[in-house]
Description:
Strand content: 15-25%
CATH architecture: 3-Layer(aba) Sandwich
Distance between the termini: 5 Å
Order of helices and strands: EHEHEEHEHEHEH
Oligomer: single chain
Strand order of the largest sheet: 4-3-2-1-5-6-7
Number of helices: 6
Largest sheet: 7 strands, parallel
Radius of gyration: 15 Å
Amino acid sequence: xxxxxxxxxxxxxxxxxxxxxxxxxxxxxxxxxxxxxxxxxxxxxxxxxxxxxxxxxxxxxxxxxxxxxxxxxxxxxxxxxxxxxxxxxxxxxxxxxxxxxxxxxxxxxxxxxxxxxxxxxxxxxxxxxxxxxxxxxxxxxxxxxxxxxxxxxxxxxxxxxxxxxxxxxxxxxxxxxxxxxx
Length: 182
């Protein structure tokens, strides 16, 4: 599986730890230098802004997809390679899922978790078979990993969730994982 474009899901806020922003910047740089297109939510704030601005500064291609509803709230990025404005959140999510060869989930809030679980559900239902990576910066997703283990242990999952979700602790580890998929 060749990964030439990556959909990134992450927060429109920076969070409380500077490490979140620093790893987002590192990821943006690494993706740009490896000539992979970034597809993301189109915002210019928070982790979204950090990863997109880093990729653009490194000469990368960045495509934003944002619904009209969020144009002001997430402060759409005006310097992207391309900005697609959709009518609805559902249309946005469908385009985000379709345009990427794989997905990377960075720290974020409710929207980020919604997107992560929809991706995993679609994977489970065989709607797509894209690899999903979690950048577990500073252990941000440790509680979620524990919950997924509990769901599996208690018999609520159809297969091993670790076959669909790759947990990485650094941006470099994600890029290295891409090589093993080719």
